[in-house]
Amino acid sequence: MAARSYGQHCAVAKSLDVVGDRWTLLVVRELLDGPRRYRDLLSALAPIATDVLAGRLRDLEASGLVDRRALPRPASGATYALTGDGRALEDVINAYARWGRHLIERRSPGDVVRPEWLVRAVRAYVRPDRDGPPVSLRLATPDGSAAVAITADRIDTLADDEDVDVTLSGAAEIVAAAMNPARVAELLTAGRLRIDGDPDAVRRLGQLFAPVPVRS
Amino acid sequence: MAARSYGQHCAVAKSLDVVGDRWTLLVVRELLDGPRRYRDLLSALAPIATDVLAGRLRDLEASGLVDRRALPRPASGATYALTGDGRALEDVINAYARWGRHLIERRSPGDVVRPEWLVRAVRAYVRPDRDGPPVSLRLATPDGSAAVAITADRIDTLADDEDVDVTLSGAAEIVAAAMNPARVAELLTAGRLRIDGDPDAVRRLGQLFAPVPVRS
């Protein structure tokens, strides 16, 4: 719980009392991918300060959003996992990801990219009403790659050496932009995006994402 | 734009760079109800400090989320209105409202209630796939009342003296809890909630809200 409450009997303000502190939602974003050790979170969220991360995890545990589980011996330390209430924050996180999608179509100098964050974008941007057979997809960037299998009702991360139906290759901001079908032709023509894979699977992939207006 | 960027090329982190500062989303929440003068925002968001509000409005204007419009003479001052990008934050705000709905089913001592925030809850909790004829609803609490007309594709605030089909009366936290059909019978039986109106309209109202699991 944040040190200071807004003191407003409003579901938005009360939620921000719990998860509105700086860094808190980004800790939750990392834990949506599965339980993590402290040192993994510290590395994924760099340059977060270690006392800030420890404080946020304590707050999340006190609010019932994260469970801390001691590792079985002989290992030492603990893992942190979201509870059901914590996982329910995925809707808030995906709403932010959709609202800010144009912000990752350009890259600011010095910004770090992790392939897991592009997978977060896939999860937020695929149509909730999609159907049809599964498509597996690799996002290949100079900053690393990630692979996912998209089915009608779930999206699973794949091991990075698994064969996939389609690979999108390019800079992270180009791969992000390519999740908007309205931009794909332009990016291919300019030679900034490469798509490899079975033409049928490429076509199905294009139907999994809803086009959004292109910003100049 | 926040003073400090997370430095992460991720649509969630980039969004929080823009709207993650304390108070910012609550300023947007107020402006979703329409353009406001500075002094109206200061009063609706009390106890926000005046320099904090001024700073947040400047940041929102610099990020293209709010337009400042000088009032025509002889009036002085300005109104603040959301741009299209600003209004698009309603999805994020409603996601928070849904996540935190159990938090307003009890009232913390000292918390302020404004009827507009209960209308925000209505907007967040009605089924997006609702249909059927319109229902108008008054939420009457000891802290003030508000009225809305709910149609298949929009929710409009009504003048507070307009006739409505259904009135829910009770403490703010009871009226909030009554937006979950799974709790209505218990609240009526306990005498904590009162429902007045045409039985057909009451039945239709009950179908506009999706039941959610009741917490003990």
UniProtKB/TrEMBL annotation, chains A, B:
Q: Where is the HTH hxlR-type domain?
A: 10-108
Q: Which InterPro entries match?
A: HTH_HxlR, SCP2_sterol-bd_dom, WH-like_DNA-bd_sf, WH_DNA-bd_sf
Q: Could you state a single Gene Ontology molecular function term?
A: DNA binding
- The answer to whether the entry has keyword Protein biosynthesis is no
The UniProt keyword set, sorted, is: DNA-binding, Transcription, Transcription regulation
Q: Does the keyword rRNA-binding apply?
A: no
- Please name the SUPFAM superfamilies in this protein's record: Winged helix' DNA-binding domain
Q: What is this protein called?
A: Transcriptional regulator
Tell me what organism the protein belongs to: Mycolicibacterium sediminis
